[in-house]
Write a sequence for this structure.
């Protein structure tokens, strides 16, 4: 194995420019959620050019590359949609330049999350060059709509494409650490029903804004009392939108709506979170709803799911994690840091719903995700491509 790992290292270094240029090409293509067609076709082309056994696009628009045809299945997953650029004045360079300079690839999506797919394309090329022939099927998925609804793409892959792997590596940014979970999340809407009256006689009405405002203060207090997990940290809840309505600006508001972002730590569920919200309404005339996402993909298919994304983590003795740690140590000569994401990933469906063992390993630092002047070190791309190739051998032992 030592000689094989040395060869993997050498090939990853050899393809440094190849990996960086592939990423640059992906970054130059704007690809907001549901609008990923051009970048999906580019990634498919890169997979075929790298010598993959197969590369196709499914009904939702996910790119599915394959190497091998073994009895066990490993997937490297990376989403190819990005958020928008925000205030362009906060960027010091063009967000979609894909510029390669000073040891970085620059632009929106370099960290979140096209760097992972660029690295796994190189890993696939390395495996083909090494004539990988183990009893393992390796899929490389460039997934869509993750930024709008994390895990929706994997709901489609599992339920419609019938791809239910034995192991998954999520290539979201981890700063080249190995991650084994993150908090879940859900989006909750609370609607308050008031009674309008003329603004000159507010006592005749029932002001929905006052009800919702009192509720918001209760939410702030609830946030301080939520559960904590030693590994994943504390659950949280915050108000992210407040909307009200009335017959006129001279009338008492008969309607108010509050949107909540709820982050779920270990042991918290959809049911427990909803019950907590109902518990602080104190008899107010209000409705609590967990929201639903449904949109039309770039392929024309309309698809959706409830906006509940379960908490997940794998245990420290999980074989996938143990093998990943061993591969990292053998490849890089040091012990990996094992940690968790702050944000949410496709793991909410992969492990949260379907209990498929998964870990995270990706180039770039998550603090730059969704931030201006996003950039990823070229060295991270090289290391990630080497690790993905090495892990395929460790998993198939």
């Amino acid at each position: 194995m030592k000689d094989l790992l040395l060869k993997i290292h050498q090939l990853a270094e050899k393809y440094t420019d190849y990996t960086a240029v592939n990423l640059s090409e992906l970054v130059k293509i704007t690809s907001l959620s549901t609008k990923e067609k051009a970048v999906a076709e580019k990634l498919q082309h890169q997979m075929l050019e790298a010598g993959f056994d197969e590369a196709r696009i499914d009904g939702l628009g996910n790119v599915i590359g394959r190497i091998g045809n073994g009895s066990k299945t490993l997937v490297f997953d990376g989403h190819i949609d990005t958020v928008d650029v925000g205030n362009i004045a906060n960027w010091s360079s063009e967000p979609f330049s894909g510029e390669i300079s000073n040891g970085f690839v620059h632009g929106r999506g370099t960290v979140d999350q096209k760097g992972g797919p660029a690295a796994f394309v190189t890993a696939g090329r390395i495996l083909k060059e090494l004539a990988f022939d183990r009893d393992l099927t390796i899929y490389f998925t460039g997934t869509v709509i993750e930024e709008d609804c994390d895990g929706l793409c994997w709901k489609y892959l599992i339920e419609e494409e019938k791809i239910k792997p034995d192991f998954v590596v999520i290539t979201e940014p981890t700063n080249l650490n190995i991650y084994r979970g993150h908090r879940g999340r859900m989006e909750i809407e609370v609607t308050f029903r008031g009674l309008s009256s003329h603004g000159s006689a507010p006592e005749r009405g029932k002001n929905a804004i006052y009800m919702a405002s009192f509720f918001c203060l209760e939410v702030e207090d609830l946030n301080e009392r939520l559960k904590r997990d030693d590994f994943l940290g504390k659950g949280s809840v915050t108000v992210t939108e407040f909307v009200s309505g009335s017959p006129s600006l001279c009338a008492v508001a008969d309607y108010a709506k509050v949107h909540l972002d709820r982050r779920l730590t270990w042991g918290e569920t959809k049911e427990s979170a909803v019950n907590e919200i109902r518990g602080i309404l104190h008899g107010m005339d209000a409705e609590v709803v967990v929201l639903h996402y449904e949109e039309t993909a770039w392929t024309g298919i309309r698809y959706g799911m409830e906006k509940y994304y379960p908490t997940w983590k794998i245990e420290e003795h999980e074989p996938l994690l143990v093998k990943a740690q061993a591969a990292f140590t053998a490849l890089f000569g040091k012990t990996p840091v094992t940690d968790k994401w702050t944000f949410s990933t496709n793991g909410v469906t992969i492990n949260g719903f379907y209990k498929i063992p998964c870990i995270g390993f990706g180039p770039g630092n998550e603090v730059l995700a969704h931030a201006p002047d996003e950039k990823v070190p070229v060295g991270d791309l090289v290391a990630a491509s080497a690790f993905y190739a090495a892990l395929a051998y460790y998993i198939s032992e």
